[in-house]
Design a protein that fits this description.
homotetramer, 300 residues, Beta-lactamase, 5-stranded antiparallel beta sheet, 3-stranded antiparallel beta sheet, 14 helices, 8 strands, globular, glutaminase activity (chains A, B, C, D), acetylation (chains A, B, C, D), hydrolase (chains A, B, C, D), Beta-lactam/transpept-like (chains A, B, C, D), Glutaminase (chains A, B, C, D)
């Protein structure tokens, strides 16, 4: 299969979708982003292909949750006592479930769960520092960094996440002071990366735990299990629809990116900032739908 | 891989789990079932292997929902206007979600959704008759039938499902009279089959829509998408955990059976009547966990 | 105070509100009712005054719940083991709460609770017969009866109440067969009475349990306690607002009637079929608001 | 009626209840309080009677919500755009409802609603200062003050209230910075007063808005309406039960106090620190139940 040609075709096919949807307007710095579309595929043998704005950095937002979860699991399974693995079945930052289940978030990919993961990672040192080290190493781009303007913008609109964190603290499910966890969380979400860099950085999930330098980050089971959590919980309350249409483990962010894994083959990253009502990139989902239809590479 | 030996090994490995859990006691006829364990694998080339009580018929219960969904989708996609595709995130027969979402059930594998599927199938004629024809043809066992005692027992304990059906009717989401839909539903759940027969009958999902006689029941996309719905919604509110541990599309029933699909390879059916708190077979889940660990055949 | 003049003044004051709101359109026979307004006050000494359409019969609907509750409590307090006394805080026929609280309705004035009361009354014989006897005796009108057309119309639109009843049956909280309880319930709601007759029939609550013939229906405490339940739960999820604006125990019906009690003084019944979003008569609430403002007779 | 003798009798009658229930253990300073019982009645003519520990100061906690609401309403009705008037139907600090209703708390007596009231009062200056001035003037005790130890203890256990406040801030329903509102809220709850002083301070509600010095704090309607909100919402999710048993507007606090109003007659304050499962004083509710039974002074 000629992946380069395939990606160009997908970029053409989804062009009518680019510009549809709404950008995330609750974060001013994100609301100003220019429309566009990019797609990159990194295969397990080291090749990378792309189309469109695949080298243009964007805000990774919730896609960062995949990497912090992997870094925490690389240190052990303890975090699973503090966060579940079930789909939330509710909008992505709901407090309802948290109250019914005594401060234990449903899964690590809703905001409450990601705050727990960041809190756990913070117990081992500088969470954002560890995350940047990993992303720089995997992508080969030493200049990947937090976008300070986005971080400042998010910090000024973080009352709901602050509420989530204090609520979990009231149940004893916060180890570090809420302000410092929130600071780490806001900064991890504000990292800017290109489709190419995200796809490269997520390849360890297609390789069942093996990093780009051949060392092992995670055991085979842990890597497969992150894929499972991505498939059931990675796209907010549209996980069922995403599995139905795309059929791959995937994790989206309100910056317009989605990273998806074809186990044993490749990691894919798409980006386009217009979001659907559930917070997933309109053109991004369409592109992944085309990708699995054309390649036949869904997991099902 | 020597599947026969593998299944024997799994039967040995999970022996300590057999008898654990609780049988479904709200249906008297199920509460009296003897303990046991069976596993069968039907591969896409036609081979079938088994271990333990793999030829012993048991009550398929909610596993029937996979087959009625397939039979409805074989006639078109209309049913998706009446039922969603998202995990429920709530216990398996919850009315809460149904009320919040105006009588549209979250997915076809919770009871409310399955009632809609049965109602839709009933629009095309005798739903149970069509289901039995399909199962008899696929399994090669012409004597597969409804267990009249189980059906009578369930019909006497169906007030909650009756409530679900009338509730959907109040939203205009029932096409046929509730008593006749309930009768079809109770009888479809009361069909008795062995692990061997279930695995054979589910093979079309591993073959992306092709029946055992080589004819096509469903298009490739539809078949893949049923697998996707099974993975995200097939084991009540433990779908995330099942994906995490087993990593296969699967559908469980309170009779103690679970059917799972390895796309492109095989269909697996396990049975053991002791259920965990979420209604899934304790030894069955353990056996599938062993199966994917030993074969490496999870979809992730 | 010249009550006759006062009621005329109130009728004038609320004239602009008459015709506002929407009639209950889910029951065809109610949807066709002509606009109008009536108010009647029956005082504890036997006098009755009225204004507007105070002699015109209308469908009592949920106002019947006050009388069935009183008739059940006249036989003992057992019903309180099957139904609570707390405001529901949710729309008037919600199943959510019923599921969270194991089939025990929040209070006797939401539909689920009233079904339990009717079921309990049915254990002692013909519920509707007992109710009609009581209403005929108190009002002095022997021709008070069920409106057969309204009853037939409601019976054809009772799926939601049927769902509620079967749902409670699934928790063991139904003593009689659901179809017969529903039949009694639909017929009790379909009784037609005038404002005059309702006010006369409710006087026992203003007289702390004493009927119009001087005999005692209920003990003083029981009568006061029905008033308490009316004040906290009598107007669906607008009970707080009704207490705030009107300040009297009251019970509304979707037929447009509201009965209110001034303990120790009088019973008031207003009627006007236009309903607000919460199911209470727009002109009726406005009239009661005027009534307590002009008389100073709120309980607060 | 000899009130002094009546109160002694009530103190005797409820003696077996004193010590029952559990003290509020989430606030360490409250968990250490000694058992006891006090009752005081302040009548509208200026007389005050008491029994038991009626002069012993205790932590007013949520009873303070009545006074801050009155002080806010004395400045206008604007606060009603930010908080509702309906019973919550849920435990007293639930976030569920807040999420469903876009950051508008159900009523001013649940924690979220009281935070809004305190926030609103803070817009006019020092909320706790205004509250202390009022309480000192009404009670005639210039030394009424915040208990610094209790305030410190609460401030250290305020994560849940902090979560509520940030959550409302995320909906734009907080005017002042959350830390300063929380500080005011914690301190208002930590005021220590005796039954005598609380009863005296609440007399304006029995006098329909008139303070002890004869000046008017609130209009007649506003005062009656606070009573209405107390009756429907004053005792957490036991408001229906309290109305049923006691039949008076009342507001409880987890310090073990309850203040109740007999409109036109008197204000009553009871105190005993053992709480029932819903956070209301066990002996306190029993005493008020005896009080209305013996006097016949329920509002119904």
């Amino acid at each position: 299969m000629d992946l380069a040609a395939l990606l160009d075709r997908i970029a053409d096919d989804v062009a009518p979708e680019v510009g549809r949807g709404a950008v995330a307007d609750y974060i001013p710095a994100l609301a100003r982003v220019r429309p566009g579309f990019g797609i990159a595929v990194a295969d397990v043998d080291g090749g990378v292909h792309g189309a469109g704005d695949w080298l243009r950095p964007f805000s990774v937002q919730s896609m960062s949750k995949v990497f912090t979860l992997a870094l925490v699991l690389a240190r052990g399974d303890d975090v699973w006592t503090r966060v579940g693995r079930e789909p939330s079945g509710d909008p992505f930052n709901s407090l309802v479930q948290l109250e019914h289940e005594d401060g234990i978030p449903r899964n690590p990919f809703i905001n409450a769960g990601a705050l727990v993961v960041t809190d756990e990672l913070t117990c081992h040192g500088d969470a954002v520092g560890a995350l940047l080290s990993f992303l720089r190493a995997e992508s080969g781009h030493a200049d990947i960094d937090v976008d300070a303007e986005v971080a400042a913008s998010e910090a000024g609109h973080a009352d709901r996440n602050r509420a989530l964190a204090y609520f979990m603290a009231s149940y004893g499910n916060m180890r570090n002071p809420v302000p410092s966890v929130l600071d780490q969380y806001v900064r991890q979400c504000s990292i800017a990366m290109s489709c190419r860099d995200v796809a490269r950085s997520a390849l360890f999930l297609a390789r069942h735990g093996i990093r780009n330098d051949g060392t092992r980050l995670l055991g085979l089971s842990s890597a497969k299990r992150i894929n499972a959590v991505m498939l059931t919980c990675g796209t907010y309350d549209a996980a069922g629809e995403f599995a139905y249409r795309v059929g791959l483990p995937g994790k989206s962010g309100v910056g317009g990116g989605i990273v998806a894994i074809v186990p044993g083959r490749c990691a894919v990253c798409v980006w386009s900032p217009g979001l659907d009502a559930r917070g997933n990139s309109v053109a991004g989902v369409a592109a992944l739908d085309r990708f699995t239809t054309l390649t036949g590479w869904s997991v099902f």
